[in-house]
């Protein structure tokens, strides 16, 4: 039995990872799905990256979890990298699933094409609390490309405004991911166009990990919604010894 | 029920799309498979790009088709782009299937590697009517790589000499595809080597669409022959809301 | 019935290709699995590239094999290229399976990222007979990424120290692969990270073949261990007319 902590992406909550957690639990594993500070119902959307990372550090420490397989989706890659840096002794393996891989001093926006940064800047500036939402057509076409229109609409309604400071705050790390001693995996879904594939997840970001285990499968950015059972299998392949 | 118009590639005819049309019709849709001017049995092979586009514009207007999902294969990407520019009110979505995506002023040959342009120049110069055919070894290895030799031979015999001016004429567009208001999808078959994959269809040409929906599957350039049922499924995924 | 000669990669032997040979034989084909000089139990690990190539040339000549489909894995790409150059009349088709494709004057290390060359230099320098082994974590994560830990360990124990001169000797060819008259195929397994995918097998090395047939499937570098039946199917697709 292994211990998994699944860290969701921007606009999501831990609850939205439950359909992924269930089939992993069915294999006998212990699976946690915390919600990052800033994405919880009452949270201040002015939450920054350090507080977001701190909330997952605290989650693991409070439960005294050890030998953790720490999985991060998209923005969650920022969080698991920071968490492993703060809690090296408790993490067995980092699993990035179409996730950002920051070096020390980088922010998420440094890894995103300029037209997305410009869009997020404009949306957050118009928000009362520095929050960003994704325009529905981008969600439908670039994130939920492997779903029908009804599923794209239904899942959009479950998203929450995301604290934009977590995209613009630089991460502080004592070592870059390639130098971290923890084992690392990268799960890449081959139809993921949340980043344009010319400036994509793998190998552009995955290779910042140094030696890592690649796991790939067919699907878009939101396989937690479109194919949670396949995602669970891939998480197990990425996390196993 | 949706209305699909399937626009074939170079050397093909609409008739060769029938095995793709049938399973789409089995889902209750209305599917048309016109042959582009220049590829019909008696057509002058000196037909240029404007006349080729005009023939599909006329096909749609004469039948008063509206809310069309307009699918183009390979060279057909030139045709559907021009058609959407001429008939914006009638097209619901453009679906490029391993297809060329031209900006205003570009010709097909601008998107093809120099060794293919040199080959086509030589073949057309030796032709009495500026037509090009594909040498059988290229068809067999680079286009029909996912078939056996007998299927490669049988399909080669169904091809027709292609009007070369449609590769060298620049397209005239009032807006580039990225700026067109119509929805767009790109279907990429991952073993398609009709273009060398270092200078390939996706993401090099697909990203000229701006926001688009990516659909991918396994197969070569001629899945209309090697796997028409899978292609039909992918066209439906690309065309649905 | 066709004649296949399967040429293994570095650290392997012909015996380790038997699970691949068997399903090809079940289709009625004649399949040979020689071990390259330098990798046989008693061989001097100071064996160089010319002697390694010569051993496969001799294997084919002694058995008077003709119309051979010559398959090479990884380092085996060096060997089959040299063999086709020495024995043009006996080879029907070259099949590279995630294999190196050398031009005249290149050595294997010329196609490998600098950090691997540095690693191999250090390991071979510490060896009494200029042999190299792969560190277990690289084998487990980058070569056997599609396996569990037990399979990674069990297969590692079957490997043999590899003669490093075969990586550093330049190959002598009378023509580069793109100019060779023999037919060519490239099999690419899409999760193969033995080379980093930013500097990978396909299309970087495959396109050195000129016109070639691409066959792809899901798997890592060692599908001879992780999925020999699928590999056998892909070899048949790559080798058929």
TrEMBL record, chains A, B, C:
Domain AB hydrolase-1 span(s) in chain numbering: 5-232
Molecular functions per Gene Ontology: hydrolase activity
Entry-linked InterPro entries: AB_hydrolase_1 (IPR000073), AB_hydrolase_fold (IPR029058), Sec-Metab_Biosynth_Hydrolase (IPR052897)
One Pfam family in the UniProt entry: Abhydrolase_6
Domain of life: Bacteria
Keywords (A to Z) from UniProt: Hydrolase
PANTHER family, per the entry: AB HYDROLASE-1 DOMAIN-CONTAINING PROTEIN-RELATED (PTHR37017), ESTERASE_LIPASE_THIOESTERASE DOMAIN-CONTAINING PROTEIN (PTHR37017:SF11)
Protein name per its UniProtKB record: Alpha/beta fold hydrolase
């Amino acid at each position: 039995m292994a211990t998994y902590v699944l860290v969701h992406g921007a606009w999501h909550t831990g609850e939205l990872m439950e359909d992924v957690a269930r089939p992993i639990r069915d294999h006998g594993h212990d699976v946690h799905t915390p919600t990052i500070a800033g994405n919880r119902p009452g949270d201040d959307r002015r939450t920054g990256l350090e507080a977001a990372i701190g909330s997952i550090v605290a989650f693991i420490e409070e439960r005294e979890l050890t030998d953790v397989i720490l999985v991060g989706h998209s923005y969650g890659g920022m969080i698991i990298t920071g968490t492993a840096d703060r809690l090296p002794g408790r993490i067995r393996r980092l699993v990035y699933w179409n996730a950002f891989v920051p070096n020390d001093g980088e922010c998420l926006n440094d890894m995103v094409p300029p037209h997305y940064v410009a869009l997020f800047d404009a949306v957050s500036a118009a928000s009362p609390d520095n929050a960003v939402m994704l325009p529905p057509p981008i969600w439908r076409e670039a994130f939920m490309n492997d779903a029908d229109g009804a599923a794209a609409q239904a899942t959009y309604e479950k998203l929450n405004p995301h604290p934009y400071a977590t995209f613009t705050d630089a991460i502080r790390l004592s070592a870059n991911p390639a130098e971290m001693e923890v084992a690392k995996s990268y799960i890449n879904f081959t139809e993921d166009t949340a980043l344009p594939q010319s400036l994509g997840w793998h190998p552009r970001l995955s290779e910042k990990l140094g030696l890592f285990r690649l796991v790939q499968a067919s699907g878009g950015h939101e396989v937690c919604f479109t194919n949670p059972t396949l995602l669970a299998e891939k998480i197990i392949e990425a996390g196993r010894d």
